[in-house]
Every structure is written in C-alpha cells, then in structure tokens.
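Lecture 7 notes. Example A: sequence first, then its structure tokens.
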Amino acid sequence: MQYSSSMVSERIRPQDFLARIPLFEGLSVQALDQIAAATTQVRSGRGSILFRQGDPCVGFHHVVYGRIKLTLRSPVGDEKVVRIISPGDSFGEALMFMGKPYIVTAQALEDSMLLHIGRDGLFSLLDSQPQLARTMIASLSQRLYKLMSDVESYSLRSGIQRVIGFLIKGDAPDEAATDITLPASKAVIASRLNLTPEHFSRILRELTEYDLIRVEGRRIIILDSARLRDYQG
C-alpha cells in the first residue's frame, strides 16, 4: 500500500510501517519494537538532499510517502539517475552491511517522509533472529537480479526498446488502454533510461505519431499495448 502525506499523521508509529517491509515480514511484535527503537523518522522537502555521495552509511531508508532519486555525478558534473525510489521501497541495505560510504546522492523529488533503520539496532537483532538474516539475503539477492536486468536492458537494448519496456513494465494487458503517470520529470526519467532528454522526447513523439501512446504532460496513455510491445522503431 502506498501512502500520501495527507494519510500520515505528523507522528507515526514506526512499527505499523516496519511490519509492511518485506524484509521484516513475519517478525514478532517484540522484534519490531526492537527495530523501531533504532528507527528515526526523516522528512525531506522537495529538492532537499537526504545524503551525498561519500557520506557514511549507518543504516538504510524506507520510503513512507514521496519519491527519492539516487544519482551519480561524474568528475565534470554530469548527473546520472540510477534509481527512483517510490513509496514502499527501501535502499541502502547492501552498503550498510559492507560498512561503506554512500556511492550515490539521494534527493527528494517531492515532499517525502522516510524511516531510517539504524545499523547497530538491526545488527543486534540479527544476532538473535537468524531467520531475519536469511530474509535479508534473499531480498538483497532479488535486488541484485533486478540490477543485472537493468544493466542488460541498458547495454543490449535500443533507446526505443528501453522506453517501451519502461512504459509496459511487462504487466500491462494486451488490449485495454493503460494510464501511466511518470514518477518524475521527463529529464529524470530520460537519465534513468540512459537517454538524453531530447532523445527521450523524440521517442515519445514517434510513439505518438504511430498512435501507440498519447502524452498529456507527465501522463501517458498506452493506446495499444500489444502493438507497443511489438514495435521496433
């Protein structure tokens, strides 16, 4: 379930949200209380920096509402969006275990609230809850699998195939029109797909000209999912 700022009170009970994180499914009330004791609520206004590349990682974040972009910056200042974190998603677990600093910068795309689960409290729980360690390994393995799929997509697929894959996401019905709202600006989405904003816009225009989609600002309506999947450009 996704939450908006209007659905969440100023002070929340962290356990209610921790229990919904796949990582913590099935934990006892006592275990959740222990994790909650090491959890901090973090509110970030749109455009604010949550942490910067090189900052120490002493826990991981879970997004309650809002969206966060993770970016890399080149020595000459170019920014590459590597991931957009939506409500219900978490990030930072692998670096927390490795004891390494952040390799990305995190910035709020909109007003957001997150939970920061501290490393020390979580590690203490892992010592007494070995099944949690197995769950975390499975979760991190799934994240790695998704990362490898992304690398394959960006390395072996054309620009238009990347955009179509992003729009379809593999689960749209073949016939009915699908209404999609981009989770960020077109420039951010373009960076996430390893495209320039101009190239991304050209692809959207091409798909529009072939009556495959209709673009209304950040809203994109897929007019024919089957044809869109099969379109090669």
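Example B, a different protein, same format:
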Amino acid sequence: MTEKSGAGAAEQDLSLSDSEGTFLGLVLRAQPITAYQVAKVYDRSPVSNFNTSKGKIYPLMKRLVERGMLIKEQVAGDARGTEQLRCSDFGREAVRQWVLDMRESHVMLEDPLRTKVQSFDLLEPGERIEWILSAKESLTEQLDRLDAYQAGVDVPFKAFVHDNAVRSVQARIGWLDRMLATLLRETAAESGS
C-alpha cells in the first residue's frame, strides 16, 4: 500500500473523531504494533472512555486503513500471518491536526455523576448521602489505579497526563465533599425544625 503524501494528502479529509485520534495517536507512538497489542493497551487503561471492546477497535482500524491513515503489514517471518500496524505520513498529519483541533466537547466534558445529581429529587435524603459516599469511595479507588497505571506506562508527557487525571478526580471528590456538607446541613436543619 502506498502512503498518501504531498498534494494528494492535502486534498484528503484529515478530520478525526476523538476515538480515531486516540487510536491513531497510540499506533503512532508505539509503531509497529499489532491490533492485539493495541487492544491490550485499551484493556489496561483506567480511563473508562478509552478502554473499549475489540468489537469497536477492529471497525475503527478498518476505517483508518481505508482512509489511508493506517497501514497494515505482515510481520516478517511470522507463519501465522500476524499483521502489524503503522501510521502513514497522511495519518501522522491527521493526528497532528487532531491535536491542534479544540472542540467545545473538549472543554466541558461529559460527567455522568453530574448528570445523575440532576435527578436527586427522586432519592430520599439518606439515599443521596449514601450515593455521595459510594461515589467518593469509587473515585478514591480510581486514584490508586491511576498511580499504578502511571508507574507501568511510558508515554510522552506522562507527568502532565497523570497530573490532569489525578487533579480531575480530586476535583470531583472535592465537589462531592461540598455537596455532602450542604446536604448534611439541610438534613440537620429540617430535623431541627
């Protein structure tokens, strides 16, 4: 397969979804890498929207090959026909453009915990408090998983990436602490009246 480059690549669509950019960026950093190895990286990730099923990885990989961003090559001397992946020059430029692209969804992230709190009126006061305590416990466990994961990976700018993940979890714990304190004050005020 020939790599897209030069004027032809400039005319091609370089846009990537976040899933495509994440996948292609991983291949670019680790190439050559097999699809199995990519799936293992996804499986080990403590980030829930990063780890994904093989049922999503293989169609994603196929699309990137069809777009000329990803190249599959036979592993030399492998009788099983194992293929390794590498990023084409066109794919590398697409990742570069994806990194430069700042979308609104990158700034205000989806947060299922925040969304669930909007329906807290359906819970009894004790259930709300238990929910908050359970969420805090899960987030605290996530901090430990992040530290263990960070110790076992070698990625560019690892310290910055880890710092962001840890501070994001800590901010969510702080938010839960403030919510818990408010709910406990409200519950005490209601029972005292």
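Note on Example B: Confidence is low (pLDDT under 50) at residues 1-10. Strands lie at 33-34, 70-74, 83-87.
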